[in-house]
Amino acid sequence: MFAGQRIVVTGAASGIGAAAAAAFSASGAEVIGVDRNEPESFNGEFIRADLSSPQGVSAAAGQVRGTIHGLANIAGVPGTAPFELVLGVNVLGLRDLSEALLPQIADGGFITNLASSVAAGWAERKPQLASFVSTADWAEALAAVQGDPEVTQNSYRFSKEAVRLLTELQASRNLGRIRVNSVSPGPVETPILADFKRDHGVDKVEGAVALLGRAGSVQDIAAVVTFLASAPAGWINGTDIRVDGGLAAHRGSQQLLAVSS
Ligand SMILES: NC(=O)c1ccc[n+]([C@@H]2O[C@H](COP(=O)([O-])OP(=O)(O)OC[C@H]3O[C@@H](n4cnc5c(N)ncnc54)[C@H](O)[C@@H]3O)[C@@H](O)[C@H]2O)c1
User: Fold this and answer.
1) Pocket, ligand 1, Cβ cutoff 6 A
2) Model confidence over 169-213: pLDDT tens digits?
3) How many angstroms separate the alpha carbon of residue 69 from the centre of ligand 1?
4) Topology, domain 6-260
5) pLDDT, tens digit, 9 for 90 and up, residues 9-30
6) Measured torsion, CA atoms of residues 16, 78, 53, 161, in degrees rounded to the nearest 10
7) Beta-carbon neighbour count of residue 135 at 10 Å?
């Protein structure tokens, strides 16, 4: 499906990124993995880079040579990390790596960003999110939100809300040339899930998994990441695909029932 295509996958050393890299390569792509950690084995080229600073992002981008078909921005850190790191890696690093690699993405190519089901309410915060993602200077962007506990205490949610907005902005700026979409997983069985339990509460995460019958698998998410990159997804652009086992639909329905009862 991806024969002859070079695809960059960040977060390729673990979890969803590793599964997406493996799925792309199994479908014929030449994968360029990027991560701060070196994977034990990797099928493709691997670039070790820390995407938590402008310098780290430039260093990573500088090592990606030639034309690429697409970029899957999957690297991410949980809300148990300091808010500067969460917003740095999950938003500003993603934004700047995308900008740096855009000229190398072939016409008809793609960017796919990993958002999250926790970002469902992103549209309510559009002005603040727009201001954050459009501030080029990292220190300035972080300084503007550091006094806002809604952001600093919910940094992971804010970061993924910003990814939802960035996805629309990136799609809009590149209409007719490349497609940009996001994927919003519910709880997925990866090393980050333990951090989510600390961040969002064990009961909330385990309750959701019990409700759904199981946590998502990395293959559940990788399948959608590869689909969005494929030719059959050629008219899907500027949108988000929820891959959460029905969790968001269920929560929405419960709220509706509570309001109408
Ligand atoms: N697992 C879930 O339940 C879940 C749910 C919703 C969204 N997500 C998102 O999916 C993405 C992948 O997460 P995962 O579950 O596979 O977690 P994971 O911890 O297994 O993988 C994250 C990867 O990102 C890399 N990374 C982190 N900081 C980095 C940095 N500064 N520079 C370079 N690489 C860095 C890590 O080294 C790791 O390999 C993340 O963006 C996460 O927020 C995960």
Assistant:
1) 11, 13-17, 35-37, 50-52, 74-77, 89, 114, 116, 185, 187-188, 190-193, 196
2) 999 999 999 999 999 999 999 999 999 999 889 999 999 999 999
3) 22
4) Rossmann fold (3.40.50)
5) 999 999 999 999 999 999 999 9
6) 90
7) 16
